[in-house]
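Internal ticket #5521
Category: modeling
Description: The requester needs a full-assembly model to guide mutagenesis choices. All entity lines are attached below as received. Residue total reported by intake: 594.
Assigned to: D.W.
Attached entities:
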Amino acid sequence: MASIITDERRPAAAPTPERAPAPAAGPRARRSKRAGVVAPWWFVVPAIAVYCFIVVVPSLRGAFFSFTDWNGLGADWSWVGLENFADVFTDRAAQAALGNTLLLAVLCTVIQNAIGLALAVGLHTMVKSRYVLRVVFFAPVVLTPLVSGYVWSYLLSPNGTVNDILRGVGLGDLAQDWLGDPDFALYSIVVAIVWQFAGYSMVIFLAGLQAVPEEILEAATIDGAGPWRRFWNVTFPLLNGAVVINVMLSLIGGLKQFDQVVAMTGGGPGTATETISTLIYKNAFLLGEYPFSVALAVVMTLVIAVLSAVQYRLTLRKAN
Amino acid sequence: MHTRYTGRTLVREIVLIAVAVIWFIPILALVNVSLKPVNSQTNALTFAWPPTLENYGAAWEQASLGAALVNSAIVAVVSIVFIVAISALASYPLARVTRRWSRWTFYGVLGGLLIPAQLALLPLYATMRDIGLLGSLWAVILINVGTAMPFSIFLYTTFLRDLPLEYEEAALLDGCGPVRSFLSVVFPLVRPATGTVVILNLVGIWNEFFVPLLYLSGSGNATAPVAIYSFVSQYVTVWPLVFAGLVISVIPILIVYFSLQKYVIKGFAGGLKG
């Protein structure tokens, strides 16, 4: 119903001042001229060379070595088949890390995007302080993740600011050793990550909101839709592009999480906040377990690829 | 966007400002604690008067932050110059040539967005060791350039595809060869894409911890986050001292952000429209 109305209103309401029509050139004339402009193939060589050297070749070697007992030092290696993967899936720390990483990534994705969307909707109004507020909410995004991790580990320490505030408002019973208690540590890290990156989601949602045509909302208002219905039935479906990008970014970011965990807990207490990235680092560079950590990296790649594909499918289907 | 300032808007405004105040607490705590005497027992949100700058001097010396900031700046500037130069260059044929090889090269580069760096980690480390780059800033620069390629090439290529050919044709008629025409016509035209590439990579490279940690820790060539990491492990609960170090390490990026915030926010938002 709303779309019928907008289709009628559009031509009158939406003049497009951006681009004057291109000088009349038929497709054929254009193509023959295009043949004149030459972009030499060798322009790609430096970029592709560095890309292959840094990304492609080492990644392929990583995947290859995960089936061997390569120790990272010598040139010697021999096939061990799936042994490294068997180790990964039976290792307690690796199981904990896989579980923690998935939980952390999902929680961060959901909470960060919910807050980012709420902030964006709030700021996409006539609120007078909107420009200043946008700068404030986005500021943590440019802060070094390691630094924000340290700040939060201070705020969440037993005598830290969070507990002080809780005691100050009479909720002293809720005060915890947030990072020292295995039941709370992972969630505390989620708080720090969400604080840091919600502004990023907000900015992408704001860009999406700006692209929602005003006329459609007006039409919905005329049809009698309240603000709530207008948002869920009109605005939100049009934000699909922003949702896809945001979910993809926060999901992949969460799955690779390293910096904040290192700053806040180092993976502890026990294995309560160990993630795949911290475990790969520890096994490779502190314990010398090269084959194990290469196999873990392959598992991580597969997890990221599968989850990206699933989320892409899901968010696209929601659009239809 | 609603066009009138109503009572509802006022309520929204108050709620949003309250949230913003909460959002700002960690940054306020960071600065405030760094200005307190080392033995201060007060809360992060109570101000100590007079503020002391002693921690800054101490942190600067004990964490060798001067050298670290110089290293961070070298890594960031050199990496970004190379990233912009070679990804812009590569995107030109990828956007203009419609042959099969250019399409497949583009897809091949984009595929890199899905590969986590952890997969390449160990073999790359072994290679860097074999060619003697461990502990060298060049290892970090090379890795920054290589891993920045997929996204930077993607941005430049999609931007260039939307750009009309007329300017390049005019340059051709004036007798410009492809190199001249790229340097004096195409590159200036893709300036908005260059802005986005520079901002995204600058923030990412300045804040990067994992790669410099692997390649530079213990080498005397640490970048700011690595210097901070070893500094904090030494002085773990001397918060005022630690926080002064943290503030120093983020001042450069915060100056960039607050002086260019419009462009920074636009860069982050626009880089993803694709």
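Resolution: model delivered.
Comment from assignee: Chain B touches chain A through 101 residues (CB under 8 Å).
Ticket closed.
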